[in-house]
Design brief:
With 191 residues, the chain is mostly helical. It has two domains: 2-126, no CATH class; 138-189. The protein is 66% helix and 2% strand. It contains eleven helices and two strands; from the N terminus they run H-H-H-H-E-E-H-H-H-H-H-H-H. The longest helix has 22 residues, at 168-189. The radius of gyration is 20 Å and the shape is globular.
Length: 191
């Protein structure tokens, strides 16, 4: 991580460390940013966002071609998720041009993540540029229609409960995989 943060100032490094702190990274970064703002009322995230968009070469990753990419693309997926969630939390005080620039950098990342893509879309929606695009995919819409039809056919109020109970094993398999992935992610950040 030292190679990735070499260009950043001390305040920006604190934000990066907070954003790298697992699933609570966005909230931790918000706390860090608020504390920094108490001591410097003119503090802006503009230079931080600009630095994340500057091209850099991945340090020590020989498995990928050596091509300059935006610095934000060199960080792990958890950081990208956290930085986008953090930007949603502080969206009102951000320079929109810098946010758009960061979103463009992340959109061009060759290692796409569905959650990052969804957060990019949500930030674009927050800024007013994707109002006409639905929040869900066509396959999601089809699946929701099928579930609704099954529930409508039951004729009882507890339709959702019955459906979820029937799919409990499928749901528990999914949540188990999620917990395992989350534990692995937490282990990456714990010294």
């Amino acid at each position: 991580m030292d190679g990735l943060t070499a260009r950043l100032t001390g305040k920006d490094k604190l934000l990066v460390l907070a954003l790298m702190s697992g699933t609570s990274g966005a909230r931790r970064a918000l706390c860090v940013f608020e504390k920094q703002q108490r001591y410097d009322l003119k503090l802006s995230l503009s230079t931080f966002l600009e630095m994340l968009c500057q091209n850099a070469i991945s340090p020590g990753n020989l498995s990928e071609p050596i091509l300059p990419r935006p610095l934000v693309c060199l960080f792990p997926v958890a950081f990208k998720r956290n930085v986008l969630s953090f930007l949603r939390l502080v969206n009102k005080v951000l320079p929109q041009t810098r946010v758009v620039q960061l979103l463009e950098c992340l959109s061009k990342d060759p290692r796409q993540d569905h959650w990052v893509t969804a957060l990019i879309g949500q930030l674009q929606r927050d800024m007013g540029s994707l109002r006409d695009v639905p929040l869900y995919t066509a396959s999601c819409s089809q699946r929701l229609k099928m579930i609704s039809e099954r529930l409508k056919d039951t004729g009882r109020n507890e339709g959702w409960a019955n459906l979820l109970h029937r799919n409990k094993t499928e749901f528990s398999k999914w949540t188990g995989r999620f917990r395992k992935a989350e534990e692995k992610e937490e282990q990456l950040y714990d010294p």
